User: Fold this.
Amino acid sequence: MNKHLIRELSKLLDTSAVLHRPEDLLLYEYDGSVEKGRPDAVVFPSTTEDVSRIVQIAAKYNVPIVGRGAGTGLSGGALARSGGVMIAFARMNRILELDLEHQRAVVQPGVVNSDITHAVEHAGLHFAPDPSSQKSCTIGGNVAENAGGPHTLAYGVTTNHVTALQLVLPDGEVVRVGTKHGGLLGYDLTGLFVGSEGTLALVTEITVKLSKKPEAVKTLLAVFDAVDDASETVVDITARAITPAACEMVDGWTLCAIEDYVHAGFPRDSDAILLIELEGLTEAVTPQTAAVEDICRAHHAREVRVARDNHERDLLWKGRKNAFGALGRLAPANYVLDGVIPRSKLPQALRRIQEIGQRAGFQIGNIFHAGDGNLHPIVLYDPRDTTQFERAIQASTEIIRYCVEIGGALTGEHGVGMEKNELMPLLFSDADFDLMRRVHDAFNPQAALNPGKIFPLSKGCGEIRVKPASATSAGHPA
Amino acid sequence: MTASTASLAARLESVISASHVTADPRVCEKYSIDNLLPSAVVHPASAEEVVEIVRFAISEKLALVPCGARSKLGIGMPPSRYHIALDMSGLRQIAHYDSGDLTLSVDAGMPLAELAEILARKNQFLPLAVPFLEEATVGGTIASGVESSLQCAYGSARDFLIGAEFVNGSGALTKSGGRVVKNVSGYDLHKLLIGSLGTLAAITRLNFRTFPSPPGYGHAVTTFSSFEAAINFQSLIVKSPLKPSSLEILDPAMAQRISSVKKSSAAPPFAAAAPSSAAWFVKDRWHVSVTFEGNDAVLRRYERDLTRWASESRAASSRFLDPAEDELLGWSLREVLQLLQFATPGATIFKLSLLPALDADTRRFRTIAEQCAIPSALLYRDSGALYFALLPETDEVGDLTQLARAARAIFDFASSKRGHASIITCPISLKRNVNVWGPPRSDSGLMGRVKQAFDPQNIFAPGRFVAGI
Assistant:
């Protein structure tokens, strides 16, 4: 990297806030996905003004920029696909304002998701979107990806809890969209920027809605001897107009792996379990719990357990949220998909995934948000075995194609990033890409921000900025 | 019919079916926006025809305004150019309804009332309890940005619109989002269509998540002799675990007007009844209307808690409405904009988005109304907007000057609270002196970029929108 650029960045921030030696950059080559990409420098701004100046300096040297929170993302969104300056928001981690009366908080992008809840739980409030990585992921990253989580079934995803943003555009201009209250005047610019994966602007301040904690919570674990029974149960619950706060499915094989690691009390000999959470007024939750129990048993659940206290409940959720980590004991790497399907097609989708896995010679685990049709098939593989990895990618692509075929989507919450961008034509036409590209170019005309993400390289922008496929194509290890 | 409009109609007829085009001035009159008439009205029957019309407009550099039932064309500024009214009501099919997945894909011209009936057969509904519900189309409702009275429990359109198809200003049929409730594939362009007033594209189809119909409903009206006491009551509810479907606060003047409405079978369906004909109405009081949903045990819980808090906040009266009363009041609150316009043709209604420190704010509104000597009424929707209506008895020029002065005061006030205000309805003549969208905003440039990306030739409803768009 141009040493003048490094010098200018070091003058702007202190030297501890600028990394450029290869050994320091290694950590920033990865995120939670199977992708890789190395930045040429990583900088740690403390203020919005810093971010604006960094962006202007990078523009002067014609160097791309990528924003990064905690690097827990699953689609390569926080990876530098074509080098450049990585802006890591770790030092912009303050809660700037808490307005408990109006249920709003203003936070910097580096604030950890669960820390928002910790700051307000004394007032009976919480921040509803709860990605499984919430103890480490940052709100800035959540905004970039429009992150979900198990409780988004009843409460919505990140965009439903953001009312205003402060942003830095690639020319350094600082802008604000939305208002604290959240009422709309003009175009929903907040709604455009949330989920734009760092390709339109860098987010430097976020106004979030806080939600009241529910009065009553009941967590049920239902154990099934057949995956079909579990998925039919989900369909039935949805059809009977019960909206659980969360409805997660884990298949038997994955469950064993988790139980060995977490000891949450999961059975080791089932085909699938459902972890269902009902929240609300006691008068609503009590009959709903009984109704859900009935529905589970009607679909041959061999056991339905209601968590007796917070400790039991927490343990069950710990099992669910640490699942991916637990799989690390079984194989060196895993590839997690994020396809979405209509809930009415859940049973057939799971059968098809199993069939695809069998043909490719893989055991495909499933831990996912059954309640909103957001699947997370997990393919375990050894990255040192390239043919195995290639078969894993092929099987995954087949699964995603199938999801789209039956009316679903490519990605429910992990984002497109650099992992699924080549699959975007499954959903979008050339005319669709034209429009998205024009919107992109309206804010990021030189493709300086996060090039090579979202758009297929042939239909997007900034192709000239992205290095050829060898080291960084979808999932292929360098 | 002039020679140029006759030939416009003829040129349109070469592009789409002749039976879908008219330049008849009596028809064009019905499509007027702020007294401006289009030269032709087109009535496409399919998305493909919409594409042809839009491409035609691009090639001829004409201005198009998409519309549905035309119930809310008065929102916004007058168009700077208006050649073709693009009536979308011919596109009215259900494209896809998966009741098991609680998702729906429907053509933009589908009437909301008809859609509600279709969903009701599966015990589901869309929480669009909006003004003009009985005439409006789903596309027009979304494009107009009017508010639902159910936001407390269900959020606004951006929380349940999951995708859309539309013909953009390059003449291409494009889409955003999809048909599933969780989706982050690509930009959320469909959210930009909400409230866009037809300035970005002609919406052909909208995808929503639907909701199960609740087993039962309740409605309480509690009155207070002071605004402070009403707020006290509201905050007890807001801080509790209860989640009402609506919570609305009416000042005495608003309560008076709403109570004196009777529903008729004529159109518009308002007939003034004798004042104070509603059993829940108490003269000179602040009224808090709370609606709630759930099973029997839940409804009893609301009744117990609301009764207790009414007493703790020293309510002057508290009443749980019977089904007939609930229906009429629910309808009146939903249709409040129409109701006020009907009673007072010169009504100027402000829609404010701010986090109120409610007592101080209502005093400010009262002051503004007194300073311009115009009767006023106020409605505050929790989780929604605050509506402040100036209801002049006449619409002479004197009143227009006062209205303009009041408008400036309201816009200033909204800015000072870091919120915003717009005028949702007013005499057309007021728009000559007042921009209904308020003063220039810091995000105007960003809005301009969005417009440019969607509609580079500026053919869609030019001049109606924020920032002169």
DSSP finds 16 helices and 21 strands in chain B.
